[in-house]
Amino acid sequence: MKLFASSLLLAACLLAAPVYAAMPTQPSLKVTTLDGKPYDLAAQRGHWVIVNFWATWCVPCIKELPGISQFVKAHPNVSAIGVAYEDTDPSDIRAFLDKHPVSFPVAQVTMDKPLTDFDEPRGLPTTYLIGPDGKVAKHFMGPITPAVLDAAIGK
């Protein structure tokens, strides 16, 4: 009887757990940045692209932004897109970026309208390194550094 009850409990937990669709190997990303410009990940083919999910309230995110920004400036074959993953007014994010400028465009994605081709972050920061072929080369959970990016790109 205990085995049956345990099996029933396990089945109920599995049914209640969220189901995540597999993220495409070659994700698409079309957004409008906070400065009103369109951004299309496909237009970046031939370059490495850092897709960085962050939030203004995330202390590790704030600490890693300057390193990503410097890395992009120092590597002409690398670009980045910041994805401010939060439900706040866009003007608040712009004000944050005025105090913490970055060298790459930033778009806002709200939690009720997540990106279709990227998994919802299970924590912030979350970063995807997209290879020149448009495929996900590496997925990072937690803060990254220029040294980590150098090692991942192999340069």
TrEMBL record:
Organism: Dyella acidisoli
Location relative to the cell: Cell envelope
Residue span, Thioredoxin domain: 20-155
Database matches in PROSITE patterns: THIOREDOXIN_2 (PS51352)
Signal peptide feature range: 1-21
Protein name: Thioredoxin domain-containing protein
Predominant place of localization: other
Keywords: Cytochrome c-type biogenesis, Disulfide bond, Redox-active center, Signal
InterPro entries: AhpC/TSA, Thioredoxin-like_sf, Thioredoxin_domain, Thioredoxin_ResA/DsbE_sf
